[in-house]
C-alpha cells in the first residue's frame, strides 16, 4: 500500500511543513528565494520541492549566511527541476566558508570556557592574554576567534598569545 503525496502545497501546508510562518514564505518569495503559482481559484500553491529551498535557507541563516548569499547560490541553479548534481555543485561554493565557520565555532567553544569568569588569575595559562598588544598587528577584533585558520597559525607561530 503506497500513500499518495501531493506534488504541490497550499501556503498554509507549506508553512506548516517548513516550520515557518506564512509571512516568512511571502518574504522569501518577494526576495526571489522561492517560487509559487496561483491555481484557478487564485490560491497560492508551492511545488513540494520548494521545501528543500526553505530548509537550506533556514539552516544557512542559522549559521549566519545572509539572505543575499543564499539568493546568489539559488540564482546559480538551473530553473525547473534541479538534479542532485546541481545541488552538489552549488554546495561547493559554500564549502570553504562553512569550514571557516566551523573552525571559528570550535575555537570559541574550546577557549571560551577558560575565559568566562576566570578573572585572569593566571596570565601564564590564559589563552587570551595579549602582551604588548601583539594581536593588534593582525587587525581589530578578536583575531584568535574570528581570524582565518592561516592567520591564527601565523599568530601562534609568532609567539603571540590571544587577544581580548
Q: Which term fits the overall shape?
A: elongated
Side-by-side strand order of the widest sheet: 1-3-2
Main pleated sheet: 3 strands, antiparallel
Q: Helical content, roughly? A: 40-55%
Strand-and-helix sequence, N→C?
EHHEEHHHHH
What is the percentage of strand-forming residues?
5-15%
Radius of gyration: 23 Å
Instruction: Give the uncertain stretches in residue-range form.
Output: 160-164
What is the helix tally?
7
Report, as a whole number of angstroms, the end-to-end distance: 62 Å
Average pLDDT, rounded to a whole number, is 80
Query: What's the total number of strands?
Result: 3
Note the quaternary state here: single chain
Question: What class do helices, strands and sheet pairing give?
Answer: mainly alpha
Describe the structure.
With 164 residues, the protein is mainly alpha-helical. It is built from 7 helices and 3 strands. A 3-stranded antiparallel β-sheet has the order 1-3-2. Residues 160-164 have low confidence and may be disordered.
What are the defining features of this structure?
164 residues, mainly alpha, 3-stranded antiparallel sheet, 7 helices, 3 strands, disordered C terminus
Short summary of the structure?
The protein is mainly α and 164 residues long.
SSE inventory with pairings:
Blueprint: E1 8-10, H1 11-18, H2 22-30, E2 37-38, E3 44-47, H3 50-62, H4 67-75, H5 84-115, H6 143-146, H7 149-157
Amino acid at each position: 500500500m503506497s500513500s499518495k503525496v501531493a506534488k504541490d502545497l497550499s501556503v498554509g501546508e507549506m508553512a506548516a511543513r517548513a516550520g515557518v510562518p506564512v509571512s516568512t514564505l511571502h518574504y522569501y518569495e518577494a526576495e526571489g528565494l522561492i517560487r509559487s503559482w496561483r491555481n484557478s481559484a487564485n490560491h497560492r500553491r508551492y511545488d513540494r520541492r520548494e521545501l528543500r529551498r526553505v530548509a537550506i535557507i533556514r539552516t544557512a541563516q542559522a549559521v549566519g549566511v545572509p539572505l543575499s548569499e543564499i539568493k546568489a547560490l539559488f540564482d546559480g541553479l538551473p530553473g525547473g527541476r534541479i538534479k542532485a548534481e546541481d545541488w552538489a555543485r552549488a554546495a561547493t561554493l559554500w564549502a570553504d566558508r562553512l569550514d571557516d565557520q566551523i573552525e571559528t565555532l570550535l575555537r570559541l567553544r574550546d577557549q571560551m570556557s577558560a575565559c568566562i569568569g576566570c578573572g585572569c588569575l593566571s596570565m601564564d595559562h590564559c589563552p587570551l592574554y595579549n602582551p604588548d598588544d601583539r594581536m593588534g598587528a593582525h587587525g581589530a577584533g578578536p583575531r584568535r576567534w574570528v581570524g582565518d585558520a592561516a592567520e591564527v597559525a601565523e599568530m601562534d607561530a609568532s609567539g603571540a598569545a590571544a587577544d581580548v
